[in-house]
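Ticket 4471: requesting a sanity check on a complex prediction with magnesium ion. Repro inputs:
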Amino acid sequence: MVIEMRIVILSDFDGTIIHSDGFEELLKIYAKTEYPSLMSAFNQERIDSETLLQRGFDALLQRATLADLNQILDKIQVDPSFPLLAEFCKENEYELIIVSDGLDWYIKRILGRYGLENLPTITNIVTFDDNHVRLSFPWRDMQCRICHGQYGTCKGKAVREHKNSGAYVAIIGDGLTDRCGIYDADLIFAKSKLKTYCSSAGYPFCEFHDFTDIINALRNASLQ
Ligand SMILES: [Mg+2]
Ligand SMILES: [Zn+2]
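Returned structure tokens:
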């Protein structure tokens, strides 16, 4: 018997699809003074994602225009194996969705250079109006037992929404904001800090180095 199942692949962006963090790349150049203290405050959970992004933009826009920021983004490359995963998912009718506690603006801009701007995203939203930014966080989850609303986008909420609609859900990530997503996911691909976290929390995961490892694992898992 063949069971038809929706297969959803949720992939982190910063540190996973690109090798750096898009927003941090901007801060490093146009908010050098504020960057270290902002990041350490965020990593120690003294400020949430919203505060980090808001204060980051306040600093950036004192010294740079939107065009200056876009110029930095236009130098950021995606991992060369990511377009292969996008192609693989298309061929197999897997839904590939970006889940990120970053921003739709830079994700779409960077992916656009690879013709991948139409991949769906679950992320924080920014709109620019003259030199003002408006941030919104449609995927925040105050009830999450990991982030308690500290992250603008709770990946646990994203996983649960897809699980509740009956999908099989795989999650791919490298960092601490990916932790929310692992509890309810069916399959975890982890590297770097997420790998360390999964190991110490006793969660089974597949280690990956780049997306070719993920393609091979998905092929071998014969999900249909
Ligand atoms: Mg990451
Ligand atoms: Zn969460």
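Notes from triage: Strands lie at 7-11, 95-103, 121-129, 132-136, 168-173, 187-190, 206-207. Leaving this open until the requester confirms.
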